[in-house]
Amino acid sequence: MHAWRVFRPGPPGTRKFELRNEPVPDVAGGDLLLRVLACGVCRTDLHVVEGDLPVHRGGVVPGHEVVGEVAALGPHVTGFTPGDRVGAAWLRGTCGECRYCRRGAENLCPDSRYTGWDDDGGYARFTTVPAAYAHRLPGGYSVTELAPLLCAGIIGYRALRRSELPRGGRLGIYGFGASAHLAAQVALAEGATVHVMTRSNRARQLALDLGATSAGDAEDPAPEPLDAAILFAPSGDLVPPALAALDRGGTLAVAGIHLTDVPALHYQRHLFQERTLRSVTSATRRDAREFLGFAAEHPLRVVTTEYALDQADQALADLAAGRVRGAAVLRP
């Protein structure tokens, strides 16, 4: 089979990111072997390939928005049969015993493992996933549309909940890519007013097409005080203006796994009057179930740009340059 591996992370021209031909992985224990039907290209993959996130395992296969067909089952697997369509997401394993796991915060487990970072992901024709972390997928979507739901959708959903947006409230979204365009639709379905701030003209138009009340440049002030905001762009420079845009008691949730340095904050302007700054770390399987259930009941418009598997490096370059409309997806 063909699979992309990160042998030396770095910017274009310096990294060793190669497409190789190798055997189909073995399946054992409680794992499923998946024939990859589609794999989303996430900004986290870009961070892994470029070295912003040090790889946890040399030569790892990236990709954690995997839509696959079960090709084989490990001897300890129950509840799945060959031919089932399932998803593999970012969270791949937790200890199940630590105080975080016991209180329902498995995303904070110190022994957590991640697809495409600790273990091989979906930039390949086949991959494996622990059956306990495989997700049932909603109907009504193509495999290309399903792929972004498995990280962009799930993490956007968690970020929206972390922002504590009141029903019918005013939400600001900074950056408008794969995750943001799905989180915005959840907020809109729940009655929110959505304002988008992003550098891309194409993304601003998409935001308006999806129902946003306004769409301005990333540096523009929000048109009205915000009850909540989500920062999807990996730019720490946007944290102060996003906090300043919040109304009293508002919350800013930072959705990315990697962020450039945050400038100094001014207490009175950015945090006083009980404004809150929160991070978002991965997501739990409960988040995934809730979001995928929402997607089953509320048809989402999933905007994608397709690439062949051998175009993964180009897809990452386009993502870095802001040339992708919606979400990039690899089709083996």
TrEMBL record:
KW Transferase (keyword) present: no
Cited PROSITE patterns: ADH_ZINC
Gene3D superfamilies cross-referenced by the UniProt entry: Medium-chain alcohol dehydrogenases, catalytic domain, NAD(P)-binding Rossmann-like Domain
Domain Enoyl reductase (ER): 13-330
Annotated EC: 1.1.1.1
One GO MF term: alcohol dehydrogenase (NAD+) activity
Coiled coil regions in record: none
Family affiliation: Belongs to the zinc-containing alcohol dehydrogenase family.
Protein name: alcohol dehydrogenase
Organism the protein comes from: Amycolatopsis thermophila
